[in-house]
From TrEMBL:
This is SMP-30/Gluconolactonase/LRE-like region domain-containing protein. InterPro entries: N2O_reductase_N, WD40/YVTN_repeat-like_dom_sf.
Length: 71
């Protein structure tokens, strides 16, 4: 999912069980956070402060800080 300002792309990594934030302009990884087996759908809250991740392996939703990747 792309941030509203189009500066950050959030990507689910099913093979590693993580989510990555990529700086679109610089083409560099900002952070990568483990979320568990099977991260699938991603969504940003309206303020762009939290990334919500549907994790199929645990039938749960994980909320991450969009700037740092912390839970």
């Amino acid at each position: 999912v792309l941030s509203e300002d189009e500066g950050t792309l959030y990507v689910a990594n099913p093979d590693s069980g993580s989510v990555s934030a990529v700086d679109v302009g610089a083409g560099v990884l900002r952070w990568e956070a483990p979320v568990g087996q099977g991260p699938a759908a991603l969504s940003l809250d309206p303020a762009g402060e939290r990334v919500y991740v549907a994790v199929t392996g645990s039938d749960s939703v994980v909320a991450l800080d969009a700037r740092r990747g912390a839970r």
